[in-house]
């Protein structure tokens, strides 16, 4: 029996699958595809984290159901991280929860917050779970600009003035995926002031907090006085410690939102496997030199990519944070749009990238290039692209 389910109907075809349809058969045919499409760290998890997992998994007691909220030791480690990194006090019992990656936390909180017809404010372009977490939960999404400047606040004013009902929540994501845009603490202060006045929840995605390339680490919205009255923030170990497959993330901030997420999760999961949570605690509490090494690795790859593309005649802004370059489509290929240009790069240059339209209609003039191959492979990708740009 075929059935057109309501939530599935609201999801468009997954654009990235179009590139995958070409990538898989090309590899099967023996083509050397350099995959810069997915934000999937290629380096191993630091050894001391793996060792703690191996040690813990030997204890049969850890093989039982875990804690949906996260084990106390990991929640305490996350609270200590916020104190150390941002100077923000987090109550490990009521103001933080462990999630199965930040993506799961965002999706489940969207479910907790949303009722049919509710208006949610989401930047465009954006990471797909930001709008579609709400859409799956039957809410409606209103797009706002991603750039943290006056146009952002003008859009907020219009949204409050013209939305019926009034907006329920606002998504923030800096360092941004896919654009790599950064926000200042002054920007967060202005956003918090606006949202408190208009009774709008703030959901901040800070997954790339530790991947930055200048002297000023990205701030947290929770550093703003009174932010915890309306804000919750999601972080992740995936990029910071090369732990994407471990699926460990966190939410911290407003007690009401943490409570809602806790209640939803209590019906859906028993938490991550306990040895994974113990290893995650070792990541947060242990030596942090590995984080600096990961940061330097992405910076080296960024520099090789940006310099190489510039030499090939393609000027791409150098990202100041994150693990992606947000590249405007070269002028002579602009008529193709991001999906067809991504297909062209795959078929003619053997380089896989993410089409910008997959992050929203306002991303269609760009592609996203991941810094997820070593510098040798990135140089090869640049050489292949140069041949396409300058035949």
Q: What's the structural domain tally?
A: 2
Q: Provide the CATH superfamily of the largest domain.
A: Type I PLP-dependent aspartate aminotransferase-like (Major domain)
- CATH class label of the largest domain: Alpha Beta
Unreliable stretches covering 5 or more consecutive residues: none
CATH architecture annotation of the largest domain: 3-Layer(aba) Sandwich
Q: How far do the termini sit from each other?
A: 52 Å
Distinct helical segment count: 13
Structural class designation: alpha/beta
Order of helices and strands: HHEHHEHEHEHEHEEEHHHEHEEEH
Sequence of strands across the biggest β-sheet: 2-8-7-6-5-3-4
Instruction: Name the average pLDDT.
Output: 94
- Give the helix level as a range of percent: 40-55%
What overall geometry do the principal axes of the alpha carbons give? globular
Main sheet, how many strands, which sense, barrel?
A: 7 strands, mixed
What is the gyration radius calculated from CA atoms? Answer: 21 Å
- CATH names the topology of the largest domain as Aspartate Aminotransferase, domain 2
Binned strand content: 5-15%
Q: Total number of β-strand segments? A: 12
How does this model look, in words?
This protein is of the alpha/beta class. It folds into two domains: 6-44 and 290-389, Aspartate Aminotransferase, domain 1 (Alpha-Beta Complex), CATH 3.90.1150; 47-285, Type I PLP-dependent aspartate aminotransferase-like (Major domain) (Aspartate Aminotransferase, domain 2). 43% of the residues lie in helices and 14% in strands. The chain has 13 helices and twelve strands. The strands form three sheets. A seven-stranded mixed sheet has the order 2-8-7-6-5-3-4, with helices on both faces. Helix 8 links the parallel strand 5 and strand 6 (201-205). It is globular. The termini are far apart.
């Amino acid at each position: 029996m075929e059935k057109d389910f309501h939530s599935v109907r609201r999801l468009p075809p997954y654009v990235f699958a179009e590139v995958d349809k070409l990538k898989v058969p090309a590899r099967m045919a023996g083509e050397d595809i350099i995959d810069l499409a997915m934000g999937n760290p290629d380096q191993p998890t630091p050894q001391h984290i793996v060792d703690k997992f191996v040690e813990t998994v030997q204890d049969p007691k850890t093989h039982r159901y875990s804690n949906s909220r996260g084990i106390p030791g990991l929640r305490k480690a996350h609270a200590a991280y916020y104190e150390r990194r941002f100077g923000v006090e987090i109550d490990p019992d009521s103001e933080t929860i462990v999630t199965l990656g930040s993506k799961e936390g965002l999706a489940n909180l969207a479910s907790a917050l949303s009722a049919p017809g509710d208006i949610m404010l989401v930047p465009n372009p954006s990471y797909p779970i930001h709008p579609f977490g709400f859409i799956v939960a039957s809410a409606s999404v209103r797009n706002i600009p991603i750039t943290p400047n006056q146009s952002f606040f003008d859009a907020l004013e219009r949204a409050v003035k013209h939305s019926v009902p009034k907006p329920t929540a606002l998504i923030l994501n800096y360092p941004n995926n896919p654009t790599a845009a950064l926000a200042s603490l002054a920007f967060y202060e202005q956003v918090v002031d606006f949202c408190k006045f208009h009774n709008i929840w703030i959901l901040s995605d800070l997954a790339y907090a530790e991947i930055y390339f200048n002297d000023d680490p990205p701030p947290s919205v929770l550093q703003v006085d009174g932010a915890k009255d309306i804000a919750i923030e999601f972080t992740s170990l995936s990029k910071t410690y090369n732990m994407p497959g471990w699926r460990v993330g966190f939410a911290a901030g407003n007690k009401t939102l943490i409570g809602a997420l806790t209640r939803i999760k209590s019906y859906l999961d028993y938490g991550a496997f306990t040895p994974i949570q113990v290893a995650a605690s070792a990541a947060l509490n242990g030596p942090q030199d590995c984080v600096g090494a990961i940061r330097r690795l992405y910076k080296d790859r960024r520099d090789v990519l940006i310099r190489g593309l510039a030499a090939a005649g393609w000027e791409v802004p150098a990202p100041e944070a994150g693990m992606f370059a947000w590249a405007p489509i070269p002028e002579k290929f602009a008529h193709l749009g991001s999906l067809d240009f991504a297909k062209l790069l795959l078929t003619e240059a053997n380089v896989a990238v993410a089409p910008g339209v997959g992050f929203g209609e306002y991303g269609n003039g760009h592609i996203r290039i991941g810094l997820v191959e070593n510098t040798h492979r990135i140089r090869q990708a640049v050489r292949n692209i140069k041949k396409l740009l300058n035949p």
